[in-house]
Design a protein that fits this description.
By secondary structure, this protein is α+β, with helices and mostly antiparallel strands. Among the domains are: 7-131, no CATH class; 154-287, 3-Layer(aba) Sandwich (Rossmann fold); 545-614. It contains 24 helices and 10 strands. It has helices at residues 24-35, 44-58, 67-73, 88-105, 154-177, 202-216, 267-278, 298-313, 316-332, 337-352, 358-375, 380-394, 397-410, 415-427, 431-444, 449-461, 465-478, 483-495, 499-512, 517-529, 533-544, 554-564, 567-580, 601-610, and strands at residues 7-8, 11-15, 21-23, 113-116, 125-128, 187-189, 193-194, 224-233, 236-245, 251-260. The strands form 3 sheets. Strands 6, 7, 8, 9 and 10 form a 5-stranded mixed β-sheet that branches. A 3-stranded antiparallel β-sheet has the order 1-2-3. α5 runs parallel beside α6 (202-216) and α20 (517-529) runs antiparallel to α21 (533-544). The radius of gyration is 26 Å and the shape is globular. The termini are far apart. 48% of the residues are buried.
């Protein structure tokens, strides 16, 4: 008699909702291979998690793998474990998915069966490696916002920022004062969990996460991860903090604090002392006094957080909104170095992307960076943005590179420094070095969408369109409205000659970016390469329409003419762009539209003027 689909001579089988049927022995063999791999060897917590979810899925319990059960049975939480307050399972699932992705891109690339824990599920899923896809499990995680959010008001923001900031400050003090520096001790901050049920607090979460990440960036060699969440019920607060060892996901310490709202700020010292004790950090060296951090104006701090939120959205209207908030923060506190830093970043982003006249915004960016350094000379982030501005404003890659190296000495864990340095390397056709910088940045800030987008841009200009498309899809899976990812996807699809998809994606960017001329240029290039010269020329006409205070980089017009093959018009507008100091000229050495013109003496002269390889 033939074995039934539910039973085979090799043991129980696992139906996947498609034609693949897997014997349990096959899956277990692949599981053991993963658990003994280099990437998982020291990750005991993640190994236990993966074994548990695979074995219970094989035994038909995938739908019973709820967050509470995993917290108690895998992560040793007691019966009072509340997944709403303690995100241990969600954070471990995120790390596990990342580890599995790395494994199948390296050691496991030839494995016959792939194992995954799909997003939205804690059950395992299986597929044949040849299928190049993993089935989506039907088990759904507890509903959470696409981006973790927290905090109910500015007082609560300042509470957690003060807690972490004090920890960071004392660790820095200990490192700088010790006669014999210890092994590097550092913390990374994951996005903070919003349990208030109020999505209007989104800007607070993003701003605080950026602020804490920035504060921790001076610590080389991240070894610990700090997570936190907050819940508010009337006047009662519940603050949960936990410390995780980065190497293996081991939970070093966690604690929940229940307090009245008016006692919130008193809790920071208690948490600080506990974390410092857990990490064996002496808060003050014997016989010495250490001055505490400068007291912040609460309103200025909130305005700075709002500015950070809009800065991270990256579209031109959002950047101008960020500038308004940073300026309001400085009106409240004229010595607020972090607000000057935000101004410098916002203005330099507008100038770098040619979304405003570089001659107008880059001097403002430089002045803001200088002010940030005036109030805090040790602010490595300000040194980094100053290096980026140096490259953009002076087109001097050698000087900028020296400034970046100085910034990275001061703040080796500042992800944006690696990001800007990576872009500088990209523009010099040093693509492998650029990707390495972005990998470093993503290790420091693994959930940053703009880092993923810019890494995708490096892939695009280095002619690795499959990788660029993959990055764009991953970003949009996290945030379907992230404008720059739509632009990246459109650019890469255009190079793949998928013109219909390219135009659709660039149109989406155009819609949310406030009619950014960059999108009109990308549309014009797509139409030109698709053979629709009339539409390409209409994009030029649209950009040249007179409008009050409208800045249009002449390089964009040159680019469309280059895509159309009109060499004379392309070089005419390129000359005008150079006179305009359009920062898009920095793309000349890597721009696909100019690829066929590289042997022309006019191209080589322009590249020399910019200081780029030719």
């Amino acid at each position: 008699m033939e074995p039934s689909p539910a039973q085979s001579p090799a043991g129980p089988t696992v139906p996947q909702g498609r034609e693949d049927i897997f014997a349990e022995t096959e899956v277990v063999k692949e599981l053991e291979k993963i658990l003994s791999s280099d990437g998982f060897r020291d990750a005991e917590g993640l190994k236990r998690f993966l074994r548990y979810t695979v074995e219970h899925t094989l035994h038909g319990e995938g739908r019973q793998l709820k967050e509470y059960r995993l917290g108690v049975e895998v992560f040793d939480r007691d019966s009072s474990f509340d997944p709403r307050l303690d995100p241990v399972v969600r954070m471990a699932a995120r790390r596990l998915r990342s580890k599995l992705k790395d494994y199948y891109e390296t050691e496991g690339i030839q494995d016959p069966i792939w194992i995954a824990v799909p997003k939205g599920s804690y059950a395992a899923a299986f597929s044949r490696s040849a299928s190049k896809e993993l089935p989506i499990s039907g088990v759904v995680e507890p509903s959470q916002p696409a981006k973790y959010r927290w905090l109910a008001g500015i007082g609560l923001v300042l509470l957690f920022a003060t807690v972490i900031g004090t920890v960071v400050y004392w660790i820095r003090a200990r490192q700088s004062q010790a006669a014999a520096p210890p092994q590097h001790l550092s913390l990374a901050v994951l996005p903070l969990l919003n349990l208030t049920g109020n999505p209007d607090n989104e800007y607070l979460c993003d701003g605080v996460t950026d602020e804490l990440t920035s504060a921790l960036s001076k610590m080389p060699g991240v070894r610990f991860v700090l997570e936190g969440s907050l819940q508010k019920n009337g006047e009662r607060l519940r603050i949960t903090v936990q410390l995780i060892r980065a190497a293996d996901g081991y939970h070093v310490w966690s604690q929940t604090y229940d307090r009245n709202s008016n006692d919130a700020f008193a809790v920071d010292d208690e948490i600080t002392q506990t974390i410092a004790g857990t990490l064996r950090v002496r808060l003050v060296q014997a016989g010495q006094q250490v001055e505490g951090p400068r007291r912040l104006d609460a309103e200025a701090h909130e305005l700075n957080l709002r500015g950070r939120y809009w800065l991270n959205r990256r579209t031109p209207p959002d950047l101008w909104k960020a500038i308004e908030y940073f300026n309001q923060a400085l009106e409240k506190d004229p010595a607020y170095a972090q607000a000057y830093l935000g101004l410098a970043e916002a203005y330099s982003t507008l100038g770098a992307n040619d979304q405003a006249s570089p001659r107008e915004v880059l001097p403002k960016a430089r002045a803001a960076a200088e002010q940030a350094l005036r109030w805090d000379e040790s602010l490595g982030e300000a040194h980094a943005v100053f290096a980026w501005i140096t490259f953009l404003d002076g087109w001097n890659s050698g000087l900028a590179e020296r400034e970046f190296k100085r910034a990275l000495q001061l703040s080796p864990n500042y992800a944006a420094a690696h990001q800007w340095y990576g872009l500088t390397l990209m523009l010099q056709r040093r693509f492998d070095e650029s990707v390495r910088e972005f990998n470093l940045a993503q290790n420091l800030d693994p959930l940053s969408l703009i880092l993923s987008t810019d890494k995708g841009v490096v892939y695009y200009y280095s002619r690795r369109q499959d990788k660029a498309i993959e990055e764009a899809h991953q970003i949009l899976a996290h945030d379907a409205d992230f404008a720059d990812a739509h632009l990246l996807l459109g650019m890469a699809q255009e190079r793949q000659r998928q013109f219909k998809i390219a135009v659709q994606e660039i149109d989406k960017y155009l819609e949310v970016s406030g009619q950014d001329p960059d999108a009109l240029m990308k549309l014009g290039v797509a139409y030109a390469h698709a053979g629709d010269g009339a539409r390409a020329l209409r994009m030029i006409a649209e950009m040249r329409k007179p409008a009050a205070s409208k800045y249009v980089p002449f390089y964009y017009i040159a680019d469309i003419y280059a895509a159309l093959g009109d060499k004379e018009a392309a070089f005419e507008w390129l000359d005008r762009a150079l006179d305009q100091h359009s920062n898009s000229c920095l793309l000349l050495a890597i721009d696909p539209a100019f690829e066929d013109f590289r042997s022309d003496p006019r191209f080589q002269a322009a590249a020399r003027k910019i200081g780029l390889p030719h």
